[in-house]
Amino acid sequence: SYTCRLTSALNASCWGDNPWGQLGDGTRIAHFTPQPVSGSGGFVQVAGGGRHTCGLAANGAASCWGLDWTGSLGDGVGNGPPTTVPGAVVGGHLFVKLALCFEHSCGLTAAGALYCWGDNQQGELGLGTFGLTNHPTPVVVSGSLVFVDLAAGAWRTCGITDAADLLCWGGGGPTLLLVPTLV
User: Fold this and answer.
1) d(C-alpha 26, C-alpha 23), whole Å
2) End-to-end alpha carbon distance in the chain
């Protein structure tokens, strides 16, 4: 119930519902016109996950803001209070693309490693486990695979490998896929 955009000057702005600070403007007030995301100069991507948002800087550093339920902000805290301005994703990883959904986030590195953080209730982090666990820092998806693209959905994540295989993991179907599985 909110939207974000990037300007040609690489500044992000968001508008819509804001109960968790997901607009990144330093408030938790809904806005019906675009509001600048605090400190967003230089973003090359902005991704929304419903209750949290992440931005990717030109240098590959990721920042997230909004609700930090089970660590979806990647700030190393998890289950903390909502954050209304961008905060750095911990771990020093540099990404080329971000994908997020309701309660988890993922980032793809230039080397093809895929890191995810947040909720792993249905195995959406690709760790080989599942359960209501708090992963507030990026963890590498299991399998030593090289990815070239990724997407995230409710309780699932998918990636395309350098061999052009589409792999998915997580829930949402009749079977939990706990590690990347060919689709």
Assistant:
1) 8
2) 30
Q: Cα Rg for the chain, rounded, in angstroms? A: 15
Helix extents (H) in the chain: none
- pTM for the structure as a whole: 0.94
- Of 102, 118, 116, the closest CA to residue 154 belongs to 102
Q: Is 69 helix (H, G, I), strand (E, B) or coil?
A: helix
CA distances from 127 to 6, 33, 59 (A): 32, 40, 27
Give just the sign of the alpha carbon dihedral 57, 59, 64, 70.
positive
* Percent share of the chain, pLDDT over 70: 98
Alpha-carbon span 19 to 170, nearest angstrom: 27
**Residue 38 backbone phi and psi in degrees, to 5:** -55, 125
